[in-house]
Amino acid sequence: MADIQKYFVQFDEAIRFDRDVEKAALAEKRERILRKLSEGIKRQRVEGTTIPSYEPFNQGSYAMNLGVKPVDGDFDLDVGLRFDLSKADYPDPVVVKGWVHRALDGHTRKVEVRRSCVTVFYQEGGEDIYHVDLAIYSSGKRNADGKDYIAKGKPGQRADERRWEPSDPQELQNVIVSGRSGENAQQFRRVIRALKRWKELRLSPQHGRKAPKGIALTVAAHHWFEVSVKKDVFGKAIGYDDLGALKSLVTQMLSRFETVWSAEERRSVVRLRILHPVSRDYDFCSNMSSASMLGFKERLEALLAALNTALGAQEPRAACQALREQLGDDFPLPEGR
Questions:
Q1: Distance between CA 15 and CA 193 in Å, rounded?
Q2: Span of the secretion signal (predicted)?
Q3: Fold entry, domain 179-327
Q4: What is the pTM of this model?
Q5: Which of 77, 192, 220, 279 has the lowest CB atom count within 10 Å?
Q6: Between β-strands 229-231 and 163-166, what pairing exists: parallel, antiparallel or unpaired?
């Protein structure tokens, strides 16, 4: 079996956010947006709108150091805004989103209210190059059950499509990153970033089906990732094995697909449930159709086949070539046969 660990590390260096460039640019955009938001909220208060205080916090890939450079160049940053309000006092969460949208409208040429967030786009030559997603929350300090809730819905949607859903992104982040440290944590992050790049290439919207979100893949890794190392003839660990770790995770995911009866479609369908690690009552794949789920499974099987081919290759070039077909051209291709 060819040893290609150094190429996995090089691949990770090529696809991960550059801490000194991309992260700095996103952080600068974040601060500008938060200043504009503060000014806009104050203006609305002066005009007579009662708006509670709020606190911003980083969330998502940026906060967990799991960011991957997007193939299309549109970098994103997730920011949470926790408002000091009870969802019972604002049954229509779109009202709260409206405060944020009005505060930021005009900051750039394109600011949109989307179902899960308010998004500020930065463009260059008419193309999106950065965007910041602001997710709006109702504070658990104000809710009877003590839980945070995220605002879902947008203008034009029916009343039953506008709702507050339980969500605690900071607790989720803490659970995912806790218990892993040092090189084990680094391998965990490399495998997630590789899987996210694969998803962007093989499950993009142009394929016509909905893909699982990046957080779904991250939570899947939290549940089923296992550290993989190479060992010498005496069983002593001699280095990390990202190829083995990725194969193990993909194998675990495929083994958990189930055939279930869909009352809505009146037929059996395949599903993979990726449950929230804290509440266990939310499935990160629940919004995927049966067709999208089947496509997800088929593409995972194709990825596993490529990983097995790489594992069986005797030369590094052949192993890397098999992986490039799934992970893209950023995966190195060494010289030789």
A1: 8
A2: none
A3: Poly(a)-polymerase, middle domain (1.10.1410)
A4: 0.89
A5: 279
A6: unpaired
